[in-house]
């Protein structure tokens, strides 16, 4: 495990760094002054912990967090967790916000939840939304932490938020909007994916928030995670081929490959998969051409031996995004649509390969 801690140097950063080293006992913690366009030492961390008090005055830091949170869990530490600011961070894809007054165990719980693909909300906001005294909520949390120091943060983050009414009525379009919101999509992205206006998305969200009895995007995401219809909508989207892989990989860098260039050979160790944006790739042994909008290299990546099953050669000049094995696994766990897309893709290619054999 490799955790990157960002923030101004000083006693606070040194203290958090020491706590994180205790959390990642067999891993590594690196402290850096800021989060930039590239990773420090060109090493991609498994998680980023940021001093969130710098984000209000450093817009580039927030943009970097927004960009990196698509592939790496980001936890933000805040002195004062204001609802609007937290909602902005959650909408940007941040995996959780933790108040600096919280206990170390709450920080660890937020980290465990982020690694599992969940979202952590500050206890003060959860308590305030329920009109409960913060002290009572904090005492409840501490009691559970003492009872089970390894407890997952899911229960902690969900405690007190309403369970959705099993007879709750939401229209099919509202289900789609809520499913995308749960994946951290902004209003603009939701509007683009559903081919509607942002004003329409806002109208849907107003209705959804009222129906779920919540007051923020973060709370709506947590409650929606309990709704079977939301999970079904995400699964249906993938099964029926409506997932846009290019959107999921939007923040990955594109690379140019020349005609005739070999991407990998049969039997090579598989360390990454490819998404073809432009051009055509030939799978030599299978005699198949792979075109734009297609993923390749997934079978070797997920096979027990991690070996390539065919040789891939660029038939034309190509533009492709490459996804490392750790990033692919992270996408698999954090994006249900991507997971089912890969399963469906692998199954169809194995079936096609079997049908070609005599």
TrEMBL record:
<dbReference type="InterPro" id="IPR039420">
    <property type="entry name" value="WalR-like"/>
</dbReference>
<feature type="domain" description="HTH luxR-type">
    <location>
        <begin position="163"/>
        <end position="228"/>
    </location>
</feature>
<dbReference type="InterPro" id="IPR016032">
    <property type="entry name" value="Sig_transdc_resp-reg_C-effctor"/>
</dbReference>
<dbReference type="InterPro" id="IPR000595">
    <property type="entry name" value="cNMP-bd_dom"/>
</dbReference>
<protein>
    <submittedName>
        <fullName>LuxR C-terminal-related transcriptional regulator</fullName>
    </submittedName>
</protein>
<dbReference type="InterPro" id="IPR011006">
    <property type="entry name" value="CheY-like_superfamily"/>
</dbReference>
<feature type="modified residue" description="4-aspartylphosphate">
    <location>
        <position position="51"/>
    </location>
</feature>
<dbReference type="Pfam" id="PF00196">
    <property type="entry name" value="GerE"/>
</dbReference>
<dbReference type="InterPro" id="IPR014710">
    <property type="entry name" value="RmlC-like_jellyroll"/>
</dbReference>
<dbReference type="InterPro" id="IPR001789">
    <property type="entry name" value="Sig_transdc_resp-reg_receiver"/>
</dbReference>
<dbReference type="InterPro" id="IPR018490">
    <property type="entry name" value="cNMP-bd_dom_sf"/>
</dbReference>
<dbReference type="InterPro" id="IPR000792">
    <property type="entry name" value="Tscrpt_reg_LuxR_C"/>
</dbReference>
<feature type="domain" description="Response regulatory">
    <location>
        <begin position="1"/>
        <end position="115"/>
    </location>
</feature>
<feature type="domain" description="Cyclic nucleotide-binding">
    <location>
        <begin position="247"/>
        <end position="324"/>
    </location>
</feature>
<dbReference type="Pfam" id="PF00027">
    <property type="entry name" value="cNMP_binding"/>
</dbReference>
<keyword id="KW-0238">DNA-binding</keyword>
<dbReference type="InterPro" id="IPR036388">
    <property type="entry name" value="WH-like_DNA-bd_sf"/>
</dbReference>
<keyword id="KW-0597">Phosphoprotein</keyword>
């Amino acid at each position: 495990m490799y955790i990157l801690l960002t923030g101004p140097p000083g006693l606070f950063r040194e203290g958090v760094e020491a706590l994180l080293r205790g959390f990642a006992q067999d891993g590594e913690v690196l402290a850096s002054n800021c989060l930039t366009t590239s990773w420090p030492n060109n090493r991609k961390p498994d998680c980023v912990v940021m001093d969130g008090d710098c984000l209000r005055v450093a817009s580039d830091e927030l943009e970097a967090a927004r960009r990196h949170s698509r592939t790496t869990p980001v936890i933000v530490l805040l002195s004062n967790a204001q609802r609007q600011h937290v909602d902005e961070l959650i909408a940007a894809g941040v995996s959780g916000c933790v108040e600096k007054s919280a206990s170390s165990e709450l920080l660890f719980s937020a980290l465990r939840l982020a690694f599992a693909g969940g979202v952590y909300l500050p206890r003060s906001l959860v308590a305030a939304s329920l009109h409960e005294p913060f002290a009572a909520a904090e005492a409840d949390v501490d009691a559970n932490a003492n009872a089970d120091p390894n407890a997952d943060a899911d229960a902690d983050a969900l405690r007190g938020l309403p369970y959705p009414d099993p007879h709750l009525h939401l229209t099919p379009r509202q289900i789609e909007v809520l499913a995308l919101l749960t994946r951290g999509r902004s209003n603009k992205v939701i509007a683009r994916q559903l081919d509607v206006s942002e004003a329409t998305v806002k109208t849907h969200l107003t209705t959804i928030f009222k129906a779920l009895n919540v007051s923020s995007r973060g709370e709506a995401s947590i409650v929606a995670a309990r709704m079977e219809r939301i999970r079904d909508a995400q699964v249906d989207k993938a099964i029926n081929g409506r997932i846009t892989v290019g959107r999921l990989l939007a923040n990955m860098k594109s690379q140019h490959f020349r005609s005739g260039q070999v991407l990998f050979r049969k039997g090579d160790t598989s360390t990454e998969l490819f998404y073809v944006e432009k051009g055509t790739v030939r799978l030599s042994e299978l005699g198949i051409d792979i075109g734009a909008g297609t993923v390749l290299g997934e079978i070797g990546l997920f096979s027990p031996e991690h070996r390539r099953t065919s040789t891939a050669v660029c038939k034309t000049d190509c533009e492709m995004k490459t996804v490392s094995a750790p990033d692919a696994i992270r996408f698999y766990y954090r994006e249900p649509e991507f997971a089912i897309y890969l399963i469906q893709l692998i199954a169809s290619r194995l079936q096609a390969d079997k049908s070609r054999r005599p």
